[in-house]
Amino acid sequence: MPIYVLLSTLTAEGSKTIKEKPERILEVNKEIESMGAKVIHQYAVLGPYDFVNILEAPDNDTVFRISTELSSRGTIKIMSMPALPVNEFVKSIKKK
After folding, report:
1. What total of structural domains would you count in the chain?
2. Contacting residues for 40 by C-beta, under 8 A, at least 6 apart
3. Bridge-partner residues for 38, per DSSP?
């Protein structure tokens, strides 16, 4: 299944929610899975983003739907991008 990287930044409302109920992050992971993707890895990070999530999803449409749904709540901003394992990248370059 294709891999996607989601970089997310909490809004002020999102920070408040996480402070009051940190387990909300795990609830969102369940919602992501109910929308057809699987959270493979998740990291809280320092810097311009608050979280890095690695997902498996069947297609771009699924990730668009997840990103739109989560962003529409006003608690998070998400940058989504497809990721290609390096081994597959090397194979695709060799085909040319």
Report:
1. 1
2. 3, 54, 55, 56
3. 56
Mean pLDDT of the 23-40 span: 95
Give the CATH number of the domain where residue 26 resides.
3.30.70.920
Give the per-residue pLDDT at 95.
Answer: 78
Ordered alpha helix ranges (H), the chain: 12-20, 24-34, 60-71, 86-94
Is the pLDDT assigned to residue 96 strictly greater than 90? no
The predicted structure's pLDDT at residue 60? 96
Question: Residues with Cβ < 8 Å from 52, sequence gap 6 or more?
Answer: 5, 6, 7, 8, 41, 42, 43, 45
Over residues 28-44, mean pLDDT? 96
For 52, the domain range is 3-94
Q: Which residues contact 25 (CB under 8 A, 6 or more apart)?
A: 18, 42, 51
Q: Which tokens in the block code for residue 71?
A: 């962003």
